[in-house]
Design a protein that fits this description.
Order of helices and strands: HH
Strand content: under 5%
Largest sheet: none
Structural class: mainly alpha
Distance between the termini: 109 Å
Number of strands: 0
Radius of gyration: 51 Å
Oligomer: single chain
Shape: rod-shaped
């Protein structure tokens, strides 16, 4: 896209330079036309050679034709320049709106990522808490199991003593 902009800018600069050359030529032709008109006026006043007047008139007509062609070319160049500028402006606007859309999307994704990070941190915190609770419960159950085993062994001892006492009686 940047290459297209660069190419369009170069084309625009080229056309601007051409347009300036045409304007300069137009100014020169206008100056020349003024000189020619002065020369023609002098010729008419002096009425010297009719053939040089005809030649001069032909030159003047040729110059006028050239000037008209240059003016038409200049108008065409200005139209082209205007079209290129409009196209460039539209492309820049499109590029800017695309950048804004991408910035908005990135911002939304960043916010979503932030929310997920918060959720993960909360889950990790809860998991740690549950792990500690489970360890505590396991420790309590292990102690209870030890007590139960101790009581079972005492019970067996008492039961066997009780059985022995019953036999003795």
């Amino acid at each position: 896209m940047e290459a297209d902009f660069s190419e369009m800018r170069k084309e625009l600069q080229s056309r601007d330079a051409r347009w300036r050359r045409i304007q300069l030529e137009c100014q020169q032709l206008h100056a020349e036309l003024l000189k020619i008109r002065e020369y023609k006026d002098m010729q008419e006043i002096q009425i010297q050679h009719q053939s040089s007047c005809v030649q001069f008139t032909e030159q003047l007509e040729n110059k006028n034709t050239e000037l008209l062609l240059l003016a038409q070319s200049q108008e065409h160049q200005q139209e082209e320049l205007h079209k290129i500028r409009n196209h460039l402006y539209q492309e820049e606007q499109s590029h800017c709106s695309e950048q804004e859309r991408m910035k908005t999307k990135i911002s939304a994704l960043t916010e979503e990522l932030h929310q997920k990070e918060i959720t993960i941190a909360t889950i990790m915190e809860k998991a740690g808490l549950l792990e500690r609770q489970l360890k505590m419960e396991l420790e309590i159950k292990a102690k209870l199991l030890e007590k139960q085993q101790l009581l079972d062994s005492r019970y067996r001892v008492i039961k066997s003593e009780n059985t022995r006492l019953k036999e003795m009686v």
